[in-house]
Design brief:
It contains 17 helices and no strands. It is an all-alpha fold. It has one domain: Growth Hormone, Chain: A (Up-down Bundle). The longest helix has about 35 residues. About 60% of the residues are buried.
Length: about 400
């Protein structure tokens, strides 16, 4: 059966597209709510950016074990969608009563990030249930292509909504999108395989299994190391870019949204190209060449400097987002497909949890570093420091088996 003839995959695809579209709105509206409504400073922006990713540091390993021990991963995804909708609705509600605070925004980011972690781990484990192994790269590509297409309009819509109804109320779009996603997921009919009965094992045993599998495999170790390095230095920039663009470059919310949308265009192109690149040179080399684009994207952003014409600065920010979008998507499509294909089904949850812990926990650390550095040495200097650090991404893949095409999908 062809992938697009798979009705359950189409439902998963539709739900993911809608929820990711809404999430693009929150990605911009939440920090804008902090900057424009609460007048947050550099360090606060670092804390807010970190709050959404701290769950990956605190809970990823345990969440991976818990996901592997659950029989119904689809239910985890639906519960996560409904929970995120409820959490996000508290932001416009608080704004309506004039009690919105920075503490609430940080709590909302942390709580929503926790549910996002569980959703991603369940999704990673669930996809091979409804898609044959040989179609995983194509399935990942289509999911990310659709998500990127939705993300093209997301930041622009967010900027427009912030101008019309203010940032807190723009987040309503994301809350509704999670409800739609839950509806689509509830209609998937593919049965999940029953778990084999095993004697109860201590949690510490299962916690270590995923880490040992990732660290013991040279391919996955290279993917984890490069992704963690990128996430750290990328988060240094991401933590302060909205504040930098708004206060030092003089960009309006609408202009910031358009610049961010360029990243989605790059991601769309990357998602479309990823299967073709993989077919031509193999998954490993595709991942390697994607890492070369990461430091280039980080280096472009600080070229947007105070005193430049607003449109020039916005174009430079857009170029950085565009190049980064291509690199991230080629990397993610191939690394996800490669990991799902080589990991035993009974270990997918624990391995995904270990990979999330190793890669995503770098984001809150990078966000905190970005906020602290921005307050200490200035926003522009911090952007350059992150660009220099981004060069450390390349050795992880260059000196690994990924440079050969032995991993051809």
């Amino acid at each position: 059966m062809k992938l697009l003839e798979n009705r359950d995959f189409r439902r998963l695809w539709a739900g993911e597209t809608v929820s990711d579209f809404g999430s693009q709105v929150t990605l911009l509206a939440l920090p804008l709510a902090a900057v424009l409504t609460i007048h947050a400073g550099s360090f606060q922006m670092g804390v807010l950016s970190a709050a959404g990713m701290l769950p990956f540091l605190f809970f990823a390993l345990a969440a991976g074990v818990w996901t592997d021990r659950r029989t119904r991963r689809r239910r985890i995804m639906i519960a996560a969608d409904l929970g995120r909708a409820a959490i996000l609705l508290t932001v416009p509600a608080a704004a309506a009563f004039g009690v919105l605070s920075f503490a609430q925004l940080a709590i909302v980011a942390f709580a929503a990030g926790t549910l996002t972690l569980f959703f991603r781990l369940a999704w990673t484990s669930y996809l091979p249930t409804i898609v044959p192994r040989e179609q995983l790269v194509d399935a990942n590509s289509r999911l990310m292509t659709s998500t990127s297409a939705a993300a093209i309009g997301g930041p622009s819509l967010a900027g427009a909504l912030v101008g019309l109804v203010t940032a807190p109320f723009a987040i309503l779009v994301d809350a509704v999108s999670f409800l739609v996603s839950a509806l689509y997921l509830s209609r998937i009919q593919a049965p999940e395989p029953e778990r084999e009965a095993h004697a109860p094992r201590p949690w510490r045993h299962d916690l270590a299994v995923g880490l040992r599998f990732v660290s013991g495999d040279r391919l996955q170790r290279a993917i984890a190391g490069s992704a963690a390095t990128l996430n750290f230095f990328g988060s240094v920039q991401l933590a302060i870019v909205v504040l930098y663009a708004s206060t030092e470059l003089g960009m309006t919310p609408g202009l910031i949204g358009l610049a961010f949308a360029a990243g989605a265009v790059g991601a769309l192109i990357g998602a479309v190209l990823a299967p073709r690149v993989t077919a031509r040179i193999g998954a490993g080399p595709a991942i390697l060449w994607a890492t070369v684009l990461f430091p280039i994207a980080l280096a472009i952003l600080p070229l947007a400097a105070p005193g430049q014409p607003r449109l020039v600065a916005a174009s430079i920010v857009a170029a950085s987002e565009f190049v980064g979008g291509i690199g991230v998507m080629v990397f993610d499509v191939n690394s996800n497909g490669l990991r799902q294909a080589v990991t035993p089904h009974e270990l997918i949850g624990r391995t995904a949890g270990a990979m999330s812990f190793l890669t995503q926990s770098a984001k809150p650390l990078g966000s905190l570093a970005g906020g602290a550095l921005g307050a200490a040495v200035g926003l522009h200097t911090t952007l350059w420091l992150a660009a220099a650090g981004g060069l450390l991404v390349i050795p992880w893949t260059v000196f690994s088996p990924l440079r050969s095409d032995a991993t051809r999908a």
